[in-house]
Amino acid sequence: MIVVLRPDATKKQIDHIIKRVKELGLKPHVSRGVERTIIGLIGPEDVLRVTPLEVFPGVEKVMPVLKEYKLVSREFQKEDTVVKIDGGIKIGGNRIIVMAGPCAVEKKDLLLEIGKKVKEAGATVLRAGAFKPRTSPYSFQGLGEKGLKYLHEVGKRLGMATITEVMDASQIPLVAKYADILQIGARNMQNFNLLKEVGRAKKPVVLKRGMSSTIKEWLMSAEYILANGNFNVILCERGIRTFEDMTRNTLDVVAISVVKQLSHLPVIVDPSHATGKWGLVSAASKAAVAAGCDGLMVEVHTKPEEALSDGAQSLVPDNFSELMQQLRVLSKAIGRTI
Ligand code: PEP
Ligand code: MN
To answer: In terms of pTM, does the model score above 0.85?
Structure first.
């Protein structure tokens, strides 16, 4: 059973509920989130038939845990979640939000040069990794804190929000100090300790779909973040592994609609990792927008051939700008803005 408290529930009301459920023999698990507090109850739920918790002051709703994912589900919340990022950006509303930038922070000047170009073209969030999850331990692993500082400085200078990956729970305070959005990478989608900790952090989170994960597993991972108090979660479809090897991954474009039916959370798409080839990024982006995504995350580099990671799938600024122009027309046709 999950007890969702009203955003204005007082400490006295919460303490009273906790006292009562303990008296009833249930074990309460309190998650204090940015927006609201949730109390998960473990134990013999039958007692709640006699003492319905809905009548307690401060309680918004009480939900039986029948489905595996609960807080992320449309049953729990009918309206779309709109995640607000510092700087007035809203993800999940009518406007499609475009995040763009290099795969990794390499040099400050280079990041500024790329940032300027993507901003000019219409991106509002600057992406770049400082901690890189690389398949090979010999590949570039990212600049770490120095990279976070560069990203923060460039974002501030250009008036762009920033997103970067956090690979380990111990990195959260550091990454949260510099970035506006925490990214959980595909390889960490089921790193449950990390999910619990970003749940406790007061920052929006982009949760990428694991490369071999079902939609249900992806939603269960999002549930971990919400259950720990953070409702500011944006799901990101980034392609899954299939038998097809012409592309790096296979973009599961229908997953956008499936998730929109099952969940109230916003969904964005990463066409770069989904395809692995810059020549396919434009088609994948347009398909994603047409299918109803709330945003895109695109890798862009001024010199893809010299990029320290993922150059092959990075658009040059001119191609990115052309794509944005096409997306403007497409968004208008489906009643959205970009
Ligand atoms: C990335 O966005 O830089 C990244 C590593 O993506 P993914 O986790 O989807 O592979
Ligand atoms: Mn990349």
So the answer is: yes
